[in-house]
Design a protein that fits this description.
Elements (H helix, E strand, L loop, with lengths): L1 E4 L5 E6 L6 H6 L3 H4 L2 H16 L4 E7 L2 E8 L2 H17 L5
Keywords: Membrane, Transmembrane, Transmembrane helix
Length: about 100
């Protein structure tokens, strides 16, 4: 996770998005309690993590003062780290990060 301040004094955070909001999935299946909550997480998370190591793309989330500003999708751990650094450098230099 990288935190930088832009030329206007606003704080930006750039990080990989490690997990997704699954409330729509759990609600449609009867709620978290019906799925076993922690059990679902214990089973699904390792599969999700290994899938990223085998080529599933990482989502890079860019937050501006705590609010999600935009996301980028990058394939590979190293490439996502380099892209995060590039986005943070652009933000701190006052260049529109795109």
């Amino acid at each position: 996770m990288l935190t930088v301040t832009d030329v206007y004094g606003e704080q930006w955070t750039v990080r990989r998005r490690w997990w997704y909001d699954m409330t729509h999935v759990t609600e449609s299946l009867g709620g978290t309690e019906a799925l076993g909550g922690p059990l679902l997480l214990a089973v699904a998370w390792p599969i999700w993590f290994v899938a990223h190591w085998f080529g599933l793309r990482w989502r890079i989330a860019v937050y501006r003062d705590g609010t999600l500003s935009y996301e980028k999708v990058v394939r590979g751990w190293g490439a996502s780290r380099r892209r995060m650094r590039r986005i943070a450098d652009d933000i701190s230099a006052g260049v529109a990060a795109a």
